[in-house]
Amino acid sequence: MKRKAILSDERNLFVICIVASIFSYTETMAQASDTVYYNAKWEKTDRENKHFYRVIHRDDKKKPIRVEDYYPNGVKQMDGWYRSLEPEIRDGEFTWWHEDGKKHRWMIFDEGEAIKITEWDSNGKITRQQEKVKTVNYENGERSYEMKALEKAPIFNRGKSTFSDYVNKHFSYPTGAQGANGKVIVQFVVDKRGKTKDAKIVKSVNEVLDKAALDFIKSLPRWTPGVQDGKNVEITMELPVSFNN
Fold it and tell me: What is the pTM of this model?
């Protein structure tokens, strides 16, 4: 059996200590739908007194719920995905439009928490762009996390290839590891120019696997750096790499 090194496939996959892998649900789910009517305050009302109306698509109670909101003239006001409607928990991609059909806001939610937002004015100009990222800190040997608001998180740019594609193509199980398995976590900094630096092991498996993960991070091509207040900023990140043989 071929031995390989893979990016961790846990929920926080591209963890790099940034919640950077958010799924947009795009599969069609139209086996059952309900329509609900709302007044201008988004209080439930009847069809004759509606200011908005909502179409709820359900395919399976275990799957996300797609919700489409409309203005009275039939123009879509919002399209998004919910994990639950009672209570309301947004979980996925959301888009809002003005009544004239122009895009107003785009957001991504992770289990109810807004982590990305872009807003446009009536002329289509971006007026706000922000992304919440999960960053890591170490103090007295203890690891802690905090959410930091950025205009843009660091992005790994290699054409159409994803970071996982890059890992699978350029990283393999190291020789001399003697069949060892485990997950190495590497912490590193993406600097203002997009270069990786200050790489170090924060969760070790053994000397061989640690070195392989560390060397790989040090060899990464440049990222598009994080941006805050219109300026490039340094961001500390973490990457978990799982070794399976």
Answer: 0.54
